[in-house]
Amino acid sequence: QVQLVEAGGGLVQQGGSLSLSCVASGRIVSAYAMGWYRQAPGSQREWLGLITTDNTTAYSDSSKGRFTISRHNAENTVYLQMNSLKPEDTAVYYCHANRTDYWGQGTQVTVSS
Fold this sequence. Notes:
By secondary structure, this protein is mostly beta strands. Helices cover 4% and strands 49% of the residues. The chain has one helix spanning 28-31; strands at residues 4-7, 10-13, 18-24, 34-39, 46-51, 57-59, 67-72, 77-82, 91-97, 107-112. A six-stranded mixed beta sheet has the order 2-10-9-4-5-6, with no helix packed on it. Strands 1-3-8-7 form a four-stranded antiparallel beta sheet. Strand 5 and strand 6 (57-59) form a beta hairpin. The radius of gyration is 13 Å and the shape is globular.
């Protein structure tokens, strides 16, 4: 059974940084483009960006310039580095294997003002 497990969330002050990881069982990370999403209370899930199997990245307007997605295929891990965090970045963050039903359980990020 495929599993994606996010980690690295927590409480951080405005302007701070966090690095999230998503560890996959099997070779999911090397086989699929991997995306990051977030969902704030009362809001729809928002796409943040993705990294393809050839390491091409794409970002949403809300994450571009502040967030960076990377991958480590040998460790079956994809990362989301978040800098210059704002209170509006507070949400549960999820990773997703593109074009599959594979989602992680999410990790909470809270940014205080």
